[in-house]
Write a structure and sequence with these properties.
The chain is α+β, with helices and mostly antiparallel strands. It contains 13 helices and 18 strands.
Length: 453
């Protein structure tokens, strides 16, 4: 009976899904902008109302920062508990870059555009609507919802929420729906995440900018010196980091893992098109996949200093700053990597100051076992193809926190695609992935409710 009515439920839920997604998108929950506190609160209250509307007990739980929305559907004290994690905060969006206003929901032919549609409000709603169906049809599973509002800024207060609510967060397993397939043609289940470590390099060589005609040739140029040291840290053409010890703790992907990456439907051509890249550092599929899933990086995000206005102002700048991050993989430790970089930079130019800004640890899970098998069957049921097991190149700070404190198996069942524009202009989602997601989640809930039988 569970599956006989599922297709009609999904069809009948479409208008409700679209209305709720529209309402969520038009609340600009940009956690990166401090003046959005009112919008963050509105987003949390809306989420609480949505969870209560499906029969969950729900509340907005305070933290030192933005709140967390927690809900629970109670099926029975003797039944297993699943915790579903999503986040409802979003990246900033520059309206001048978008087709339409990023916080005005737009739909056309089953395509939904707006900031947060795919990351991560659309997938959250798919999971919620699947949970309602499962509860209404007697699936013997308790379901907890954790909807965070600080994921996009590294989850600085998520551990506070977890540690202060451990008693009611006890769970048999965890489901995260905040990941991306490699290709629409092949479902993907990630089992690992890269970590991240953020730092700045700053160099001051004077008290003010000075005239290049009067001082040029003898005045030190902090932008040039900073660029020189950065070029000694890594090879910008290959991405290879030159700092001794940087790769010492890296656990290499096995041949079996790499083959699963290759089975994901990836092609360099589709990758370039989806991300609007003109050229990659290399085009061999295996090398690209290892680079984005299983190897660390050194990235320069911005260099500030000197004159940035129109034309040329002939000065020698007195200060420059580079914003840098490293994506990390198991078993790299963020603080150790920072020390390696800091000591290397100090040796090359002792006047450059390195400041540690924050970090997220890498995560590696299992791609075998009963939960992974249940996830694989659920994805195949909904989307018609056996999924590939992959790793995510990005980071989700909350995952490591849940692993450390809740100590339960974690499964990733994402619904986003490269062309959906994670963190990019014209972010979008679509009914095909949303409706398939509802079916996938229902099947997964059913599967794991019977694991102990």
């Amino acid at each position: 009976m569970l599956y006989e009515r599922l297709d009609s439920y999904v069809r009948d839920s479409r208008e409700e899904f679209e209305d709720k997604l529209a309402e969520m998108i038009e609340v600009p929950t940009i956690s990166m902008e401090p003046d959005r506190a009112g919008d963050m609160r509105r987003g949390a209250e809306l989420a609480r109302q949505y969870l209560e509307s499906i029969g969950a007990r729900a509340e907005v739980v305070e933290t030192p920062g933005n709140p967390v929305v927690f809900g629970r559907i109670e099926a029975g004290a003797n039944y297993p508990t699943l915790t579903i994690y999503n986040h409802l905060d979003v990246q900033p969006a520059d309206p001048s870059e978008w087709h339409k206003d990023p916080f005005t929901f737009f739909k056309e032919n089953g395509r939904y555009e707006g900031r947060g549609t795919t990351d991560d409000k659309g997938p959250a709603l798919s999971a919620m609507m699947a949970a309602r169906y499962a509860a209404q049809n007697g699936v013997p599973l308790n379901i907890n919802f954790i909807w965070e509002l600080e994921e996009e800024i590294g989850s600085p207060n998520f551990e506070h929420f977890i540690k202060n609510n451990l008693d009611r967060l006890s769970t048999d397993s965890i489901l995260v729906s905040d990941t991306i397939w490699i290709s629409r043609s092949r479902p993907a289940i990630p089992y690992g995440l890269r970590g991240a470590m953020m730092l700045t390099m700053t160099l001051e060589t004077g008290a003010k900018d000075v005239h290049s005609g009067l001082t040029g040739g003898v005045a030190r140029n902090p932008i040039g010196e900073l660029c020189k040291v950065i070029s000694e840290c890594y090879d910008a053409e290959t991405g290879r980091v030159k700092i001794k010890g940087f790769y010492d703790d890296v656990v290499r992907a096995t041949r079996q893992e790499v083959q699963s990456f290759l089975d994901s439907g990836f092609t360099p051509q589709k990758f370039k098109k989806a991300h609007e890249l003109k050229k990659l550092r290399f085009d061999d599929p295996e090398r690209v996949l290892k680079a984005i899933m299983a190897e660390p990086t050194f990235e320069v995000h911005g260099i500030a200093g000197g004159y940035q206005g129109p034309n040329v102002k002939t000065i020698v700048p007195h200060r420059a700053e580079a914003k840098i991050s490293c994506r990390l993989v198991p078993d790299q430790e963020p603080k150790k990597v920072f020390r390696l970089i800091r000591d290397f930079v100090r040796e090359k130019n002792p006047d450059i100051k390195c400041e540690f800004l924050g970090a997220l640890e890498p995560y590696i899970g299992e791609f075998t076992g009963k939960y992974a098998d249940a996830a694989s069957r659920a994805m195949k049921y909904a989307f018609g193809r056996q999924p590939a097991f992959t790793r995510e190149g990005g980071s989700i700070g909350a995952v490591v926190t849940m692993k450390n404190h809740l100590r339960s198996p974690i499964i990733f069942l994402g619904l986003s695609l490269p062309e959906h524009g994670y963190h990019a202009k014209n972010e979008n989602f679509d009914w095909g992935m949303a409706s398939g997601g509802i079916k996938m989640f229902v099947r997964y809930f059913d599967e794991i409710s019977r694991l102990s039988e």
